[in-house]
């Protein structure tokens, strides 16, 4: 950025941008003119040279949403112990508990996805080429990175919004002993959830929007001629193996296996590129939910085997996450006629794709 004389190296700062969130991380509009640089790779190969960095930045974006959700949910759970409605604390109202439980499911699932991806990144970085398992991990990392980032970032925005709603939006004054205190509910800046929500939104944009990442998933399938799908299935089946020793997890594991079969059938049933692209987001989310289900089952089996405190809850989480057809919700084949209708609805009856 600066030369030996301390002056900016051909950089002109036009302005700092006024952003919706992440205000603690300034974003500037820069102009580069006569900047001096050093070539560190081959000409014309800049993007391939930095592609591995995308794994790290996309993982970081996924983490940003998850940590925002964790903070917001912690506030919502603590608030529910103190806020009284209908003559009861919120924590004693079944509907409120159901709402918080859904947020807890989302947090646990996305956390499992995140740390699995971190594990893959660590193994690929620390394992030499040609060593057994390295190619498998590298393939999974390439496939899973856009999946985890897209799903976790998107889910976090919705979940943080729910956590804000769980605190309400009214400023109240209460007497604690002989002292008046202000109690600030969720929509107010004082609590901090508003900032979490604003900051989480950018994670659906940075390092690839949800749609860009979904198309990247299709790119991996295309580049590997769907070979990555076999690697993914093998990995998920391995994650489910410990469930065999725990009857309480059999149903959840079966749901994940069914979801895998449905995902595979979906991919191989589509012959038109536009149809595949139209359903790319649904496919990406289905892959994420199925993988999260396998990881939750694996974790619950470990907890039960080790006699960990809360193992029964871990089993319940796995069962709840994998229940019914939730894993493949939104995995729908959008036929050309449906896509044409979408275009007409958005841009008018005469519009064409």
Automatic annotation (TrEMBL):
<dbReference type="InterPro" id="IPR009075">
    <property type="entry name" value="AcylCo_DH/oxidase_C"/>
</dbReference>
<dbReference type="InterPro" id="IPR009100">
    <property type="entry name" value="AcylCoA_DH/oxidase_NM_dom_sf"/>
</dbReference>
<dbReference type="Pfam" id="PF22217">
    <property type="entry name" value="ACDH-11_C"/>
</dbReference>
<protein>
    <submittedName>
        <fullName>Acyl-CoA dehydrogenase/oxidase C-terminal</fullName>
    </submittedName>
</protein>
<dbReference type="InterPro" id="IPR036250">
    <property type="entry name" value="AcylCo_DH-like_C"/>
</dbReference>
<dbReference type="InterPro" id="IPR053998">
    <property type="entry name" value="ACDH-11_C"/>
</dbReference>
<feature type="domain" description="Acyl-CoA dehydrogenase 11-like C-terminal">
    <location>
        <begin position="228"/>
        <end position="347"/>
    </location>
</feature>
<dbReference type="GO" id="GO:0003995">
    <property type="term" value="F:acyl-CoA dehydrogenase activity"/>
</dbReference>
<feature type="domain" description="Acyl-CoA dehydrogenase/oxidase C-terminal">
    <location>
        <begin position="44"/>
        <end position="220"/>
    </location>
</feature>
<keyword id="KW-0285">Flavoprotein</keyword>
<dbReference type="Pfam" id="PF00441">
    <property type="entry name" value="Acyl-CoA_dh_1"/>
</dbReference>
<comment type="similarity">
    <text>Belongs to the acyl-CoA dehydrogenase family.</text>
</comment>
<keyword id="KW-0274">FAD</keyword>
<dbReference type="InterPro" id="IPR052904">
    <property type="entry name" value="Acyl-CoA_dehydrogenase-like"/>
</dbReference>
């Amino acid at each position: 950025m600066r030369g030996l004389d301390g002056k900016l190296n051909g950089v002109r700062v036009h302005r700092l941008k006024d952003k919706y969130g992440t205000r603690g991380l300034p974003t500037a509009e820069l102009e580069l003119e006569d900047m001096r640089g050093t070539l560190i790779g081959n000409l014309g190969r800049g993007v391939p040279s930095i592609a591995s960095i995308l794994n790290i930045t996309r993982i970081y974006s996924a983490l940003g949403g998850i940590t925002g959700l964790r903070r917001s949910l912690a506030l919502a759970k603590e608030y529910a112990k103190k806020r009284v409605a209908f003559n009861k604390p919120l924590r004693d109202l079944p509907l409120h508990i159901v709402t918080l439980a859904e947020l807890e499911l989302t947090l646990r699932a996305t956390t499992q996805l995140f740390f699995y991806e971190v594990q893959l990144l660590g193994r690929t970085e620390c394992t030499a080429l040609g060593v057994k398992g390295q190619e498998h991990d590298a393939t999974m990392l390439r496939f899973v990175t856009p999946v985890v980032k897209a799903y976790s970032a998107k889910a976090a925005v919705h979940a943080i919004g729910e956590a804000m709603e769980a605190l309400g939006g009214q400023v109240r004054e209460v007497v604690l002993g002989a002292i008046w205190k202000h109690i600030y509910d969720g929509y107010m800046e004082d609590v901090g959830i508003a900032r979490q929500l604003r900051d989480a939104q950018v994670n659906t944009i940075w390092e690839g929007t949800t749609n860009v990442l979904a198309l990247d998933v299709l790119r991996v399938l295309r580049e590997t001629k769907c070979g990555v799908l076999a690697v993914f299935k093998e990995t998920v089946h391995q994650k489910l193996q410990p469930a065999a020793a725990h009857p309480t997890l059999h149903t959840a594991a079966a749901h994940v296996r069914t979801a895998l079969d449905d995902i595979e059938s979906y991919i191989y049933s589509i012959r038109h590129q536009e149809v595949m692209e139209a359903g790319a987001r649904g496919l990406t989310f289905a892959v994420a939910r199925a993988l999260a289900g396998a990881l939750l089952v694996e974790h619950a089996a470990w907890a039960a085997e080790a006699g960990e405190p809360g193992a029964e809850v871990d089993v319940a989480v796995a069962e709840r996450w994998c229940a019914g057809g939730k894993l493949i919700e939104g995995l729908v084949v959008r036929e050309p006629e449906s896509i044409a209708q979408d275009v007409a609805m958005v841009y008018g009856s005469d519009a064409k794709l």
